[in-house]
Amino acid sequence: MMRTSSTSSHSNRLWVTLKLLPGDIHQIRKEFPHLVDRSTAVARKMGFPEIIMPGDVRNDIYVTLVQGDFDKGSKTTAKNVEVTVSVYDEDGKRLESVIFPGAGDEAISEYKSVIYYQVKQPRWFETVKVAIPIEDVNRSHLRFTFRHRSSQDSKDKSEKIFALAFVKLMRYDGTTLRDGEHDLIVYKAEAKKLEDASTYLSLPSTKIELEEKGHSATGKSMQNLGSCTISKDSFQISTLVCSTKLTQNVDLLGLLKWRSNTNLLQQNLKQLMKVDGGEVVKFLQDTLDALFNIMMENSESDTFDTLVFDALVFIIGLIADRKFQHFNPVLETYIKKHFSATLAYTKLTKVLRTYVDNAEKSGITDQLFKAMKALEYIFKFIVRSRILFNQLYENKGEEAFRESLLQLFKSINEMMSSNSDQTVIVKGAALKYLPAIVNDVKLVFDPKELSKLFTEFILNVPMSRLTIQKLYCLIEIVHSDLFTQHDCREILLPTMTDQLKYHLERQEDLEACCQLLSNILEVLYKKDVGPTQRHVQIIMENLLRTVNRTVISMGRDSELIGSFVACMTAILRQMEDYHYAHLIKTFGKMRSDVVDFLMETFIMFKNLIGKNVYPFDWVIMNMMQNKVFLRAINQYADMLNKKFLDQANFELQLWNNYFHLAVAFLTQESLQLENFSSAKRAKILNKYGDMRRQIGFEIRDMWYNLGQHKIKFIPEMVGPILEMTLIPETELRKATIPIFFDMMQCEFHSTRCFQRFENEIITKLDHEVEGGRGDEQYKVLFDKILLEHCRKHKYLAKSGETFVKLVVRLMERLLDYRTIMHDENKENRMSCTVNVLNFYKEIEREEMYIRYLYKLCDLHKECDNYTEAAYTLLLHAKLLKWSEEACAAHLTQRDGYQAATQGQLKDQLYQEIIHYFDKGKMWEEAIALGKELAEQYENEMFDYEQLSELLRKQAQFYENIVKVIRPKPDYFAVGYYGQGFPTFIRNKVFIYRGKEYERREDFEARLLTQFPNAEKMKTTSPPGDDIKNSSGQYIQCFTVKPKLDLPSKFHRPVSEQIMSFYRVNEVQRFEYSRPVRKGEKNPDNEFANMWIERTIYVTAYKLPGILRWFEVKSVFMVEISPLENAIETMQLTNDKINNMVQQHLNDPNLPINPLSMLLNGIVDPAVMGGFTNYEKAFFTEKYIHEHPEDHDKIEKLKDLIAWQIPFLAEGIRIHGEKVTEALRPFHERMEACFRQLKDKVEKQYGVRAVLSSLEDRRGSRPRSMVRSFTMPSSSRPLSVASVSSISSDSTPSRPGSDGFVLEPLLPKKMHSRSQDKLDKDDLDKDKKEKKKEKRNSKHQEIFDKEFKSTDISLQQSEAVILSETISPLRPQRPKSQVINVMSSERRFSVSPSPPSSQLTPPPITPRTKLSFTIQSNLELNGMSSSDIPDVPPPLPLKGSTADYGNLMESQDLISPTTSPPAHQRHLPPPLPSKTPPPPPPKTTRKQTSVDSGIVQ
User: Fold this and answer.
1) Residue 786: CB partners within 8 Å, gap ≥ 6?
2) In which element (H, E) is residue 790 found?
């Protein structure tokens, strides 16, 4: 559609709309009549279409005026040349209406070109179509006349033709004018002469012709030829012939016009095979007509038969070529509608047979090969010829025709049976192309006879040769109409199955075999191919087992496995009950053959079900396979019942394989309908039903059919039956769970117990539930159904009920474990893992117990809980002996352990445990295990090399203990109150071990992340029943202090660095203290009625252990009176001073600031009134009169006040030595305050002093032990830390003139001051100090100072003076020398004796590394003096220090509990059977509480 659109005054535009119409012109006119009608112009292609159908006649010549060059002659300017085109015959008569200027234009008689004004060399490129009747072409020529045109009419009329050119449409040899450009000769003559055709027709028309006649075509002067002169002008045209009747090939023309010269016929037939294929197919119908006319007109002679046959083969071969394969329909149409040679069949058959009979002759083989490739169309001509003959002569010569075909096949078969290598290529072609003749030949030949001929043809092929070609030949026969006929199949199928079996058994050409079998089965499945039962039976008898074995032998990575499985499925699908019954008979009387077949089939089915060859989402194929397999399994089950159930014929392995197959079928993923969408599930149920239920009921029936043989399947069948019962289909569960009771009953009748069944079901249940099977409903059904059956049984009522309850308990734990197994919070998974392993420990299932130990260990390692991982592995090591006893398989569940004996495995475990203890910085535990291992190396294994390495490790561990600062975790009490929590934590309290440097606010945030709906309680008091019974969730969390449980080996004073480990490890008791005011408030002295309420929590096991938390098993509370509180506070204060003094004595490089703060806070009387408050409260006559029972305690408090003075004196002395000039005024003021305090105390409470003398015998000890320590799991070294660089306290101190620290007594406002601020301040100080040290020294140094051991002189005097002499320049003592401390020494930190003995103070060795810590059994919340580092240690990675100990029976709060011997202390206790507490939630730092939120 075109239209002009004037969008502006300056431009025009043309709009074109296009639409593609598919199909030929007839189809388009039919389907698009509104667009294309009879008046629509149709332009044919300037060339031939892809297909030229017979009867499609065309005779168009396209002429293009290209260009010219015309001399201006006598004119001053170039001529205005007009060319006129017309068509004339040889008589000079113009042909009318044969020129078409364009498609849709009317035909005209002459065409006039465009005129270019005064252009010497005009270029036209104008094309017209010339359509001339075929019969007139050979007499016609194109005439081009040239005329000068004037713009003036008068002159124009007088202008005549000044030149002429022409070209004949037919060449002298009878071929049509060649396509392409032609340079025509321009003739000049008188106008009248030029109009006379006879004047120029005898002259050459083109310059090429002129040269051929010996004339020069390039002369500059004009040449005279007759009455015409050749002009210097030039003129070019181009032509294109589109004709189905006019050929430009002389050889083809000779054949098409063979009658004109029969002498050249043989030559023309031979020359045909040299003609270009495009020219031949263009004239296909005429060429074939010519060939068969030659054959028919020489019917009495065979002179031309072979040549015509070869020409026919050549033409068929052309069309078979890819280039011309689209001409196949043309050939088919010709044969059906235009072929008419009735006797051609005899000659074609005869020539073909001659070729076959002489196949081995030289020169024949190639031609025969070509004939074989053309066999399909040769036989189409033969059959069509015979049909035309029958129509004409009413079946005359039928027998002769039949005989000729038989003879032909006989010749072919003889050729096929020969072993000549020369004809191999011909035989291959015969196998490939012979089946193509079937559909045509059966029209004129008996199909059964033809089937026999093809059978013989196949059987004549040697078995070892041309296998692939033979199989594809059979495939083509199956595709033919022959195989769809029942009688023909009867003949063909046995041969095909025999061939298939032969080649399948030899694994030859499996792809072709599979394709052949698949095509056979596809035909047999059709409804319109007659009876197939007999033929399915043939396939079943010959091929079923062979196909099964082929599938079994194939790998899953084979490309053909899916196809062979589909073939096997198709065979089974088409087998009816009759076939299954007949299958047994085919094996004859050999019972073993039946057993082997069923065993093979069961194994194959099970493998195919377990590893499906089809994609999971190919539901239709999988369901079809399952449907077929289900029917086959049920049919084979009938065979089992009939043939192999009685006592004489029972086959245990066969039945066992059946049960495993059936269960595998039932439990396969593609049948688990609950995993599909509801729509897909509905479709599957509608079409196939729930196949799980069908096979499940069948399994149940088969089990009960076993009768007395059941015991043979226990315990092996427990697992498969369990898998089946776990399928989430209620009716199936109800039907199959009773099988368990039947198994119990069966084993009980045999052995009077069902231990094997019980062991097996526990083991299998663990794997199944962990794998995702099982649910709450199953647990309920299992409990209900089995209990009902057990209670009805006379002997199983009690033991059966015990077993059922046991399994139900296990399922509860396993379901909990599975639910939380994929939880992001690994600590939750730890809790459930311990839950399960405790259960296995309880029921003594060692294999499963170890399995879960390693699961727990792996979880700990993932969280970097190396201490807990070590304790977990230690539980496994406890199960082993130091012996040569063989290691059971279940003891070595890890691939990493290569041990043949228990001793070897225990050795490997100990090495790994020591490694984990080292990473967790639990060197005390590593040393204890190392000693046990060293004993084995030294006295049992005599492995001194390992021993030396182990001892080096131990030495390193000892050094680490005294040189590496270890962070001390906090402990938190957590209560979960309310019915909203799970049962195993509901209304219970747990003690959690915090992570390194974890504050309570961070820990609470972790808890609340796990329970986002929980409400945090604001009080530390136990909640009432209203909260416990509410439906909500309430979490109570507060910090508790671990109670030191010092091992018995520490019977003398030791370094605080050693002691500090036991303050936070191997602890089982924890306390929380809060102040309680009794009586009226005294505004002048708040300490008089300030009582302490202390709650003691005892956990089930010591912390750390295999978890970082344990449940609180007992809670009790004690009250501390104000006087006892005062004593405790004074002890704490003295302890702080003592420790700080000792640290500075041991390490002169310690910063002085913490000491300054501590001393000033005690001696400066500006704050809190000091111990004056205690004097007012407890030292009055009124109090002594009212509380006579407190006399000893009052004396003890006085004694503590008095003993503070010598401690302060030593501290101020050290401070004076180290104080800088800038702080000298501060020190002098502190000294003045101390003198006042000392005078007052000594006056009121007496003088306490310690005399210490130094002797030359003392060896040197390192003052400062500084080193860089890098943990194995850390990429960064721990900070350089001094063993003595521990601050006096991290608890904020309220200085008082009498030296008290009163924070534990303060109300909430004072007590709740953030611990973290001071930690941060100390950390900042530490960083500054380290930077200063780094500037002073490039390397870290170990300062060794000499100091002498002290002989203690005990003097019976009231005043003992504390003094010491330091000799730093004394030579270092040899390493072999041992520091001797008198056995009579007592720890300076022990509480002073009662007044009766107060004049004999405890001796002290001030310069040895002994702790001055005062032991306090009445400490409040928070850390004791020795717990607080002045410079906090650096933050390590996520490792945690931990331990695991035994629960002590003693509940004594005052005296420490005696620890077991070292070799026993390191072995963890038996795991608790109760449900362990849940782990804390994952650490989050979303928020940090400013206020602790605790209400006192």
Assistant:
1) 737, 738, 740, 741, 800, 804
2) helix 776-792
